[in-house]
Amino acid sequence: MDEYRELFVEDTDWYNRILLGTLLPQCVWVPLPRFLQTWLRNYIGGVLLYFISGFSWCFYIYYWKGNVYVPKDAIPSRRAMLLQISVAMKAMPWYSLLPCISEYLTEIGWTKSFPRLYHVGWPAYLFYLAIYLIIVEFGIYWMHRELHDIKPLYKHLHATHHIYNKQNTLSPFAGMAFHPLDGILQALPHSLALFIIPTHFTAHLVLIFIEGIWTANIHDCIHGKLWPVMGAGYHTIHHTTYRHNYGHYTIWMDWMFGTLRDPEEDDGKVM
C-alpha cells in the first residue's frame, strides 16, 4: 500500500516540476513545503488557463468573428469584463486550495483514487469515469440549485456572479467570477466523488482544469446546439430567469428535475 501511495506522490512532484520548473527559478519554489508547491502550481495553472481561454475566446467572438455570433449591442463592455477579471482573480487563490486538499487526502490513502490505468484496466476505467461524471453532474446541479433556493446563500455568495444577467454583460471572463466560497462549493462534487467511486487521479485533475475552459464557454452567449450539452444558450437563460438550467455539462439533470428551459422555446429572448 505504501508503494501504491508513493505513485501519487511521484505524480504530484512531476506536475509541480513541469509547471513550476518551467516558469519559476528553482530557488523560489523548491524550498516550499510540498502542499504549498502544489497550491502554487494550481494557482499559476488556473490563472494561465483563465486568461488564455478568456482572451482567446473573446478575440475569436468579438473581433475575428465580430457580428457573426454576437451583435455589436450585445458585446460586453471592457468595464464589465475588467470587473469579472477582478472578481475571478480575488477568488483564484482560494479556488486553488480545493485540488490541493484532494491531492493530500489521496496521497495519505483516504480516497478511492488509483494512480495508474493498469491497476484497473480500460473497461473499469471507462466505467468508473462515467459514474464519476454522473456524480459530478448530479452534485453540481443540486449545489447550484441550492445556492439559488437558500436565500442567505444566494444573497451572500451566489449573487456576486448573477450581477451579470444580460447578454451585454456576460463574457467568457464571467465563467469564474464567483465569490470564493461559491466557486469552491460548486467544484466540491469533483472532490467528493473521489470518496465514492474509484477514480484515476490524473483524470480528476484534468477534469478540474477543464472546468475553467467549460465555464468560459457557457458564458459567451453562443449556443452550440449540440444535444444533450448544456450550451451557452441554456446558461444565458439561467442568468436571465434565475430558475432554470442549473445543470453543468448536460441538460439531463434539469430534464429529470423539471427545471429545463430550451433556448429555441424562449420566444427569441436568447440566441
Q: From the alpha-carbon coordinates, what is the Rg to the nearest angstrom?
A: 19 Å
The percentage helix is 55-70%
Structure summary, number of beta strands: 0
Order of helices and strands: HHHHHHHHHHH
Mean pLDDT: 90
Alpha-beta classification: mainly alpha
Strand content: under 5%
Q: End-to-end span in angstroms?
A: 53 Å
Globally, the shape reads globular
As residue ranges, the low-confidence spans are none
Largest sheet: none
Total helical elements: 11
Description:
The chain has 271 residues and is mainly alpha-helical. It has eleven helices and no strands. It has helices at residues 2-23, 26-29, 34-64, 78-95, 97-107, 122-149, 151-156, 180-192, 201-217, 232-241, 252-257. Helix 4 (78-95) packs across helix 8 (180-192). The protein is globular and about 55 Å long.
Which secondary structure elements does this structure contain, and how are they paired or packed?
Layout: H1 2-23, H2 26-29, H3 34-64, H4 78-95, H5 97-107, H6 122-149, H7 151-156, H8 180-192, H9 201-217, H10 232-241, H11 252-257
Helix pairs in contact: 1-3, 3-4, 3-5, 3-9, 4-8, 6-8
Task: Give the gist of this structure.
The protein is mostly helical.
Which tags fit this structure?
61% helix, 271 residues, 0% strand, 11 helices, mainly alpha, single chain, globular
